[in-house]
Amino acid sequence: MSKRAKRERETRLERRRPHREERRVYLVVCEGETEKAYFDGMKRHPDVRMHTVHVRRSKHPQREVVVRSAAEAGPDEYTQIWAVFDTDGEDVASLVAEARRSGVEVAHSTPTFETWLVLHLKDHRSALVGGARAVGALKALLPRWTKGGTRFEDFADGLVDACARAERLPPGGDPGTRVHLLVRAVLRP
């Protein structure tokens, strides 16, 4: 360093401007209790700022309610708002388009969220015709898992692998998931 540069650095008395990194906060509106439990556990990660809401009130799919609730949330309070729901093998393209028009990101799983959980434990590309098959595949890999007892800690070690495996699945395929997009957004540095 030159003497002049050193002198300028030493004699500069002005204060540095305060620098505060913007905090990213995500709202995750979930259809099921499994999803909520997973994301609630994920919130314990030190870099995650997330609010989760569970809107399911019946045994029937509530995809439309999830998207509507997410769209009605205060967009100024959150970096991104996500709707998380199961497709149950149905075409959800119009619902995804509706969500995007409302500024809501979508993380859906085909057939169910358990597909995403299976990807934490192994590469799985064969068809999971229904939710019961997805649950069966998950229980075969993690026998102590229960729908009401989902813990993020049981899946945390496979998170990076799950994201990579989900990216390799064909879009709109069975199984399929877009949850990795939400996870990558939340955990990005």
Describe this structure in words.
This protein has eight helices and five strands, in the order αβαβαβαβαααβα. The chain has 189 residues and is α/β, with parallel strands linked by helices. A five-stranded mixed sheet has the order 2-1-3-4-5, sandwiched between helices. α5 packs parallel to α6, α5 packs across α7 and α7 (159-168) packs across α8. It is globular.
Topology (SSEs and partners):
Elements: H1 3-11, E1 26-30, H2 33-42, E2 50-54, H3 63-72, E3 80-86, H4 93-101, E4 105-110, H5 114-121, H6 131-141, H7 159-168, E5 176-177, H8 179-187
Parallel strand pairs: 1-2, 1-3, 3-4
Antiparallel strand pairs: 4-5
Order of secondary-structure elements: HEHEHEHEHHHEH
Secondary structure tally: strands: 5
What proportion of the residues is helical, as a percent range? 40-55%
Strand content: 5-15%
In short:
Helix 5 packs parallel to helix 6, helix 5 crosses helix 7 and helix 7 crosses helix 8. The protein has a 5-stranded mixed beta sheet with strand order 2-1-3-4-5, sandwiched between helices. The protein is globular and about 70 Å long.
Question: What keyword list fits this structure?
Answer:
189 residues; alpha/beta; five-stranded mixed beta sheet; 8 helices; 40% helix; globular
